[in-house]
Structure formats: C-alpha cells, structure tokens
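> example.struct
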C-alpha cells in the first residue's frame, strides 16, 4: 500500500498485482529451498538438510517449525517487494 501511495493512480493496479506476484513467488521459493538453505546443517557454502526442502518431515523435527517458517518467509517475500518498489515508475 505504501508503494501504491507513492505512484500515480494510473499505475496503481499494476503495482498491486506486481506486489502480490512477488509475495507469492517469494513464499513458494522459500518453501521449496529457502528454509533448507537458511536452517539446514552448515557445510562450507550453504545450509543443507533434505528434510527441510519443501517442508518435508517438518512435524518430526520441531513442532513449531511452521511458525518459524511463516515468520521467515514473510521477511524473504518482503525483501523482494522492497527491491521492486524502488523501481516503481522508473523502468
């Protein structure tokens, strides 16, 4: 909504659709691989745990993993909209 308030009215619909799309893609991407990279067992480069990809086996690992996932996924999706919001009406 902040982004819509800083642009002209003729572009409001496209910005809202772009933000919804960014949020959906961000959440799905975080669901597939983001959580496994962030919270998996650490190796030399990135975290890895096959149980965390696409939330497979979450219930067995930690009961409140879904709560943690929702919290972290909201930040991951928000980061995408911040970057795209900086370019509103500029490209």
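> example.seq
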């Amino acid at each position: 909504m902040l982004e819509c308030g800083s642009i002209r009215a003729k572009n409001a619909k496209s910005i809202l659709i772009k933000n919804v799309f960014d949020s959906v893609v961000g959440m799905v991407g975080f669901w597939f691989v983001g959580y496994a990279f962030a919270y998996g067992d650490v190796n030399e480069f990135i975290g890895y745990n096959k149980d965390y990809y696409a939330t497979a086996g979450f219930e067995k690992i930690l009961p409140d993993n879904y709560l943690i996932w929702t919290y972290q996924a909201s930040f991951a999706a928000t980061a995408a909209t911040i970057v795209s919001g900086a370019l509103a009406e500029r490209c």
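> remarks
The chain has one domain: 12-78.
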